[in-house]
Amino acid sequence: MSTVYIQSNNIISSLGFTTEENMCAVVSGKSGLHYYKENTLDVPEGFYASRIDAEKLNAQFALISNLECSRFEKLAILSVHNAIKNSLVNTTDSRTLFILSTTKGNIAFLEQDTNNEQAYLWHSAQVIANYFKNPNTPIIVSNACISGISATIVAKRMLTSGNYDTVIVVGADIISKFIISGFQSFKALSQKACKPFDANRVGLNLGEGAATIILKINDKGNCLPKGTITIENEAISNDANHISGPSRTGEGLFLALQSVMKGRKAEEIGFVNAHGTATPYNDEMESIALWRMGMTEIPVQSLKGYFGHTLGAAGLLELIISAESLRQNTIIKSLGYETCGVSHPLHIITETKTKEITRCIKMVSGFGGCNAVCMLKKIS
Amino acid sequence: MNLCISKYCSIKNNCFSVNGEVVFANSELSATEFLTALYRHEQIGYPKFFKMDYLAKTGFLAADLLLKGTAFYGDSLKQTMGIFLSNNSSSLDTDIAFQKTIGKEYFPSPSVFVYTLPNIVMGEIAIKHKIFGENTFFVSQEFNDRFVRDYVNQVFVEKDMESAIVGWVELFDQHCEAFLMLVEKEKGTINFTQEIIHKLYKS
């Protein structure tokens, strides 16, 4: 029986450029969300978001390279660089694979020129893989908001198939006029800090981020060190219901949860890291799926109040915080929650505290009716 | 476990073929006009088709005609069927259309924005045919037959999967190309190997 485990990771967000910085900020209850007034990024309306400081990013990138590349590519490269820094990963090995998770990549390039090769996702993936001198064609997963978890699942399968020893999964998305105006047109954005699962939630906040996990396989029955986080089970399912609205029965998420929870009791799960975008429909749908699973007593949190919705990075970024929570036996509070606002009340975590935990669940849902669930387990 | 390609179809150069045989062709139309002509020719009768962007229309049509005449056609619930698609330009065709709505004249439209994600095409296919299984969208400069074979094979090994719609759905600036395979366990005479996938895609 082989085991796929997280060897190393990194998060870059408005809260910091390392996983440690981000974890410290989250544990102390700090949010990276701020208000940006009208005409920021040439968007007529103001918006609330979590953005990475451009000067800090350029300064950090200049310390490692003088490569001319886009902001999106810089973020991804810097995140991978930080993740591999303390690992023994050889990125030039043909048994190392790169997977990029993103929804929009360099889409902001369309503002200047609609005929620009840099707007192609494979262009960015190749820039990233070339930087690390990787000989394989990088894999790109673009599955709306579940991209990060989809990419993690793809990575696990590629390791299990025996073709690779190491898979580096990097997820990133940046905030542009394109993305903000689209979500504004959907009336999906909140003008204040978002309030996942709360009765007064009105919408989401967007966030910028890059996150990297390095996955390895243990197929020789070796003992992994205590505290190692493994990807124990995973599933992807479609609602087959609507392209932009979640299922009223939470069908796809329920099916994915059912698959991942097979043979497990609800009480074995230390906490659920929900998608929790704070749109009225998403959070309601998640509560229905958890209720159908008999999991309403399990502590639940959304991290959107800290990072906003980081799109193609979200699944990875939140999976890393979940893995760190497991490792540190810390259950993180859901920011912005006061009063229950879903029809099946959940046990939303309102205070960050320590607790002995072994397993947790990360769930995500996105446009196109897609849902993904991942179960992490700590080696004890 | 032996995976087989029980049926395949393609839309390329204004020509629609099933298992290598031309079913409908019209070289006088633009690529996107051809999609509507194909929809009418096949009498699909699904008004939502007209709301879709061109990428979704391409994938929707190819999938509908792939499943037509098989046990998978229609709205019986399919929890053990997956969808694995890939393309070159993601949703760039619609991305450019959306970008044009947020320039000097600013009127972003939610009905355009929703199609600025390549996986929406899989959502449209899943809705029509009630497919609840795993669905993943990949982007690659060229059709990566080796990866597709490896990945789909691995999903069948690990998951409770009986069938899958697998292939390439590309649409950009009047260049339209779809190649879909119906992959099943032990059903059919064409093996799901890299060489065969490559040959069928190129033919």
Order of helices and strands of chain A: EHEEHHEHEHEHEEEHEHEHHEEEEE
Measured as a percent range, the helix fraction of chain B is: 25-40%
Q: In whole angstroms, how far apart are the ends of chain A?
A: 17 Å
Number of helices of chain A: 10
Mean pLDDT across all amino acids of chain A: 97
Principal-axis shape of chain B: globular
**C-alpha-based Rg of chain A, rounded:** 19 Å
- The CATH architecture of the largest domain in chain A comes to 3-Layer(aba) Sandwich
Shape of chain A: globular
- Going by CATH, the architecture of chain B would be 3-Layer(aba) Sandwich
Largest interface: A-B, 56 and 51 residues
The tally of structural domains of chain B comes to: 1
The top-level CATH class of the largest domain in chain A is Alpha Beta
Estimate the strand proportion of chain B. 25-35%
Quaternary class: heterodimer
Assigned CATH superfamily of the largest domain in chain A: Thiolase/Chalcone synthase
Low-confidence stretches of chain B: none
Q: What structural category do the secondary elements of chain A indicate?
A: alpha/beta
